[in-house]
C-alpha cells in the first residue's frame, strides 16, 4: 500500500473511517480481540464501533450510503470476498433449479452443491480462444426449466453480458436474475452496463476493480422482500469477526470518484490496436493476445517488474482500476508496444516455457538478450526500434481518447447471435441421472489423458473450471494446467479421476 494515497475528499465522507480515525487519537487500552493489541484501527465490536451483524450506528449509515449509490433496496458490506455474496444471494433466491453459464466462478458451483440447487448449464461460445457470454438462444431455451438465472458480468476477460435481454427474459418467464459482478464494482458509474440496473440480486467485488482492501465486497437486493431474505442469508455466510479496515475500505471504494481521463486513455489504446487487444466492453480488463507465447511474455514482463492479473496460455490480462496512476498505465503501454513488436514475430511452438528456457524463437540470440539483460535495456529490444517509436507516437497523437462513451460496448453484445465456434461439448456430469461411477483416485496429471475428471479444476485466477466432474481430460488441458503457475482442483501435481465411468 506504500504507493496508495487516499483521497481526503472521499475520506471525509466515509463514516466507518471517520469513526476509526476519531478513536485512534484517544487512549485505547486493548483488552479485547484481536490478539495483536496494536491499537484502535483493527478492532472488534465495541461500544463505539457498531456491529456488522446487527448495525445500528456508523456501519448502518455506511451501508445506507452504499445502497443509495448502487441503487438497491439494501446493500450489505462483506469482508469475506464476493464468494460470501454469491452464497448469500443463492440462498436468498430460494431457487431450486438455476441456469448458470459455464464461465461462472467455482463459488457458484460450490454454493449450488451446498444448498442442493440443481444447475441447468448454459454453454458458452469462444472467439479466438477467448470465452464469451452465453447466447440469447441458449439462454432462452434453458431458462424454461429453471426458476433463476445467474450471469457473470463482466467476466474475467471484460466481456459484458446482454443484460437488457436477460432482464426481459426473466420478466417473461418469472425467473429471478442473479448477477455475479465480482469484477464490475466500478460499473456503477455507467448505469447502462451495471449489474444493479437489471438484477434482482447481485454482488459487487469492490476490491477487484476499486481501491478497497482484498476481500472487500458488497451484496445487494433490488426489492424490500428480497432484502429481508438477503439479510438472513448474509447472516449465515458472513463472518462474525469482520475486519474493520476492510469495512472502511469498502465504503471508501464505493464512494471513490470516476477516473474518466484514464478510461479514455485505455479505450484509445484499445482502439489503436484491435488486432492485439481484445475488448469486451470493460475498460479495466486489458487483454493482450500473444497466443502460445503468452506465458513467455508474462514471465518476461515480471522480470521488468510488471505483474499481470493472469495468463491463460493465450491472453495476458492486465487489471486496471480508477486508482491506477496515469504514469503506471503509460509504462504498461510502452512495455506492451515493445512486446507486440518483439514477441509478435516469433514462430509458433508447442514447447513449454520450462522446456525452452525462453529460446523458442528462430533467432535464439534475440530472445536470450531480452531475457538476460532486461534490466539494462531500454526497450530497444524490438526488431525494429523505429517502428515501436513511431507506433507509440502515433498512439499519443490519435483522437481515440475522445471517442464517445457509447462505443465502449462491442457491437457483438447487441447482435442477436454472433457467428462463433462453440467449444467441444463436455461429457455428461457423473452427477446427472443415468451416470454410473466408481471410486476416485489421484494420479499424476501427465498420465491422465483420456480419463474422466472427478473434481473441477482450472486456472487460478480466473477460477473458472477448465474441467468439470465427468469431463474427459485432453492433452491440451493437461499442458495448460502444467504450465500455469497457479491452479485449483489439483493436489501435488495430481488430478482426481474416476476409476471407471459410464453413461447409460
A few lines on this structure:
With 504 residues, this protein is an alpha+beta fold. The protein is built from 17 helices and 20 strands.
Descriptive notes:
This protein is α+β, with helices and mostly antiparallel strands. The chain folds into 3 domains: 176 residues, Aspartate Aminotransferase, domain 2, CATH 3.40.640; 148 residues, no CATH class; 69 residues, Molybdopterin biosynthesis moea protein, domain 2 (Alpha-Beta Complex), CATH 3.90.105. Helix content is 34%, strand content 15%. It is built from 17 helices and 20 strands. The strands form 6 sheets. It has a 7-stranded mixed sheet with strand order 1-9-8-7-6-2-3, with helices on both faces. Strand 6, helix 7 and strand 7 form a beta-alpha-beta unit. Helix 2 packs across helix 10, helix 4 packs across helix 5 and helix 4 crosses helix 9. It is globular. About 18% of the residues have low confidence.
What are the key terms here?
about 500 residues, alpha+beta, Aspartate Aminotransferase, domain 2, Molybdopterin biosynthesis moea protein, domain 2, four-stranded antiparallel beta sheet
Helix count?
17
Please tell me the overall pLDDT.
81
CATH superfamily of the largest domain: Type I PLP-dependent aspartate aminotransferase-like (Major domain)
Q: Within the largest sheet, what's the order of strands? A: 1-9-8-7-6-2-3
Structural class by sheet pairing and helices: alpha+beta
Please indicate the count of domains: 3
Strand content: 15-25%
Shape category: globular
Helix fraction, binned, reads 25-40%
Main sheet, how many strands, which sense, barrel? 7 strands, mixed
CATH architecture of the largest domain: 3-Layer(aba) Sandwich
Question: What is the CATH class designation of the largest domain?
Answer: Alpha Beta
Round the Cα radius of gyration to an integer and report it: 24 Å
Unreliable spans are 346-435
Find the count of extended strands (DSSP E, 2+ residues): 20
CATH fold-level assignment of the largest domain: Aspartate Aminotransferase, domain 2
**N-to-C span:** 56 Å
Amino acid at each position: 500500500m506504500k504507493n496508495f494515497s487516499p483521497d481526503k475528499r472521499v475520506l471525509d465522507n466515509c463514516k466507518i473511517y471517520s469513526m476509526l480515525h476519531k478513536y485512534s487519537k484517544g487512549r485505547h487500552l486493548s483488552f479485547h480481540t484481536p490478539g495483536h493489541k496494536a491499537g484502535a484501527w483493527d478492532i472488534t465490536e465495541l461500544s463505539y464501533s457498531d456491529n456488522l451483524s446487527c448495525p445500528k450506528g456508523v456501519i448502518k449509515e455506511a451501508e445506507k450510503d452504499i445502497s443509495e449509490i448502487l441503487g438497491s433496496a439494501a446493500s450489505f458490506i462483506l469482508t469475506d470476498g464476493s464468494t460470501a455474496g454469491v452464497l448469500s444471494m443463492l440462498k436468498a433466491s430460494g431457487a431450486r433449479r438455476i441456469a448458470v453459464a459455464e464461465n461462472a466462478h467455482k463459488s457458484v458451483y460450490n454454493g449450488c452443491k451446498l444448498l442442493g440447487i440443481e444447475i441447468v448449464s448454459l454453454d458458452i461460445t469462444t472467439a479466438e480462444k477467448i470465452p464469451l457470454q452465453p447466447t440469447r438462444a441458449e439462454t432462452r431455451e434453458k431458462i424454461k426449466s429453471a426458476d433463476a438465472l445467474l450471469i457473470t458480468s463482466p467476466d474475467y476477460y471484460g466481456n459484458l453480458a446482454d443484460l437488457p435481454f436477460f432482464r426481459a427474459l426473466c420478466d417473461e418467464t418469472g425467473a429471478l436474475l442473479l448477477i455475479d459482478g465480482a469484477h464490475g464494482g466500478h460499473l456503477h458509474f455507467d448505469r447502462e452496463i451495471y449489474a444493479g440496473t437489471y438484477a434482482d440480486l447481485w454482488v459487487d467485488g469492490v476490491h477487484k476493480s476499486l481501491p478497497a482492501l482484498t476481500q472487500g465486497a458488497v451484496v445487494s437486493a433490488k426489492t424490500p422482500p428480497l432484502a429481508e431474505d438477503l439479510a438472513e442469508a448474509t447472516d449465515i455466510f458472513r463472518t462474525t469477526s469482520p475486519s474493520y479496515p476492510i469495512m472502511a475500505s469498502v465504503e471508501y471504494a464505493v464512494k471513490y470518484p470516476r477516473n474518466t481521463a484514464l478510461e479514455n486513455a485505455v479505450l484509445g489504446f484499445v482502439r489503436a490496436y484491435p488486432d492485439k487487444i481484445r475488448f469486451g466492453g470493460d475498460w479495466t480488463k486489458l487483454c493482450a493476445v500473444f497466443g502460445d507465447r503468452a506465458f513467455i511474455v508474462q514471465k518476461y514482463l515480471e522480470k521488468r517488474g510488471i505483474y499481470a492479473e493472469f495468463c491463460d496460455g493465450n491472453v495476458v490480462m492486465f487489471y486496471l482500476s480508477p486508482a491506477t496512476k496515469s504514469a503506471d498505465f503509460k509504462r504498461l503501454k510502452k512495455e506492451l508496444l515493445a512486446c507486440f513488436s518483439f514477441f509478435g514475430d516469433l514462430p509458433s511452438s508447442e514447447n513449454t516455457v520450462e522446456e525452452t528456457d525462453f529460446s523458442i524463437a528462430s533467432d535464439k540470440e534475440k530472445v536470450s538478450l531480452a531475457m538476460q539483460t532486461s534490466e539494462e535495456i531500454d526497450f530497444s529490444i524490438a526488431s525494429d526500434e523505429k517502428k515501436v517509436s513511431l507506433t507509440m507516437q502515433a498512439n499519443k497523437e490519435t483522437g481515440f481518447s475522445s471517442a464517445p462513451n457509447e462505443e465502449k460496448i462491442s457491437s457483438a453484445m447487441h447482435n442477436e447471435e454472433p457467428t462463433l465456434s462453440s467449444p467441444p461439448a463436455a461429457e455428461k456430469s457423473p452427477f446427472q441421472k443415468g451416470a454410473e461411477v466408481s471410486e476416485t483416485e489421484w494420479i499424476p496429471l501427465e498420465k491422465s489423458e483420456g480419463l474422466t475428471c472427478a473434481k473441477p479444476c482450472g486456472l487460478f485466477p480466473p477460477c473458472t473450471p477448465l474441467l468439470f466432474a465427468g469431463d474427459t481430460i485432453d492433452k491440451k488441458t493437461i499442458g495448460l494446467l502444467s504450465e500455469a503457475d497457479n491452479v485449483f482442483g489439483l493436489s501435488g501435481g495430481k488430478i482426481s479421476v474416476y476409476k471407471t465411468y459410464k453413461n447409460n
